[in-house]
Amino acid sequence: MLGKCPSHSPCGGGASAIFKFRLKKLNLGQYDGQCVRVVVDNGNVFEGICVYRDKEYCECEYGRKEECLEMEDFIFFPRDIVSVESLEGNSGPYGRFTVPYSDLEMLTVEDGFGYIKEALESEESEHVVRLLNCIDEYLYIRREIPWRSRLPEALKRLLVSNKDPEVQATARKMLERFRRPVGSVRL
């Protein structure tokens, strides 16, 4: 939550001075293994299955003695989290999720083909579908991207390795688009 600095602070409580504060301590452990929506202090919104990591694990793995939530390749420490919301009870057009894809998938796509390939090979089917939807839109908006030519082979491997019907349908649809001549109408 954001607010003005208190009047006793070095800035004198000026209206332009903003600081971050928490009304209560986050109980991150309650979100272990759940589908959640995490909003971080830079405004990014991530939706996905998270894993809780305790202080000891984080100290050993990340050199920080504070708990965190992990979502795929992203780590969220309490001081970076503005809010966490469980999406376990949700049921809508995107299943448990509130949007077709979030910053989790967009940042994976922007990080390049190595991250995309790893995500397609290792993630749960519902994450794979969200990533494919994000890639599809990304390709539609930005036709010239360095890894575009490598995607059909990755989609073919995905069809062999992931038998989820929704993953299969989405991957086949994307492969069909690659078979069309350049400049043909996108359906």
Explain what this protein looks like in three dimensions.
With 187 residues, this protein is an alpha+beta fold. It folds into two domains: 24-99, SH3 type barrels (Roll); 103-179, no CATH class. 37% of the residues lie in helices and 18% in strands. The radius of gyration is 20 Å and the shape is elongated.
Please summarize what this structure is.
This protein is α+β, with helices and mostly antiparallel strands. It has helices at 55-62, 103-111, 113-122, 125-141, 151-161, 165-179; strands at residues 2-4, 18-20, 35-40, 45-49, 51-53, 68-71, 74-76, 81-86. It has a three-stranded antiparallel sheet. A three-stranded antiparallel sheet has the order 5-6-7. Strands 1-2 form a two-stranded antiparallel ribbon.
